[in-house]
């Protein structure tokens, strides 16, 4: 059993990718306003640019962070710097 890939790298589930969703805010338009949106319309969110973003796996909040734009080889790529990790047993 020691020759199996699982024995070399740990549990096989550790290699399964998950999706992390980053929430920057929410909008609360009325249906009438939503139906009248056109190209170039601006939908105001309930957050400011400097407010932390929330990271979720499924519907579970796992961390807070700050949006950042990468430099160098990945210039222009959007990223998140984690500022607070959730205590999953007690919440943030």
From TrEMBL:
Compartments reported by the entry: Cell membrane
Chief subcellular location: membrane
Membrane topology note: Peripheral membrane protein
One Pfam family named in its UniProt record: FliMN_C
Gene3D superfamilies: SpoA-like (2.30.330.10)
GO cellular component, one term: bacterial-type flagellum basal body
Keywords in alphabetical order: Cell membrane, Cell projection, Chemotaxis, Cilium, Flagellar rotation, Flagellum, Membrane
Transmembrane parts of this sequence: none
Alphabetical GO biological process terms: bacterial-type flagellum-dependent cell motility; chemotaxis
Protein name: Flagellar motor switch protein FliN
Ranges for domain Flagellar motor switch protein FliN-like C-terminal: 15-86
Entry GO MF terms: cytoskeletal motor activity
Keyword tRNA-binding appears in the UniProt entry: no
InterPro entries linked: FliN-like_C (IPR001543), FliN/MopA/SpaO (IPR051469), FliN_T3SS_HrcQb (IPR001172), SpoA-like_sf (IPR036429)
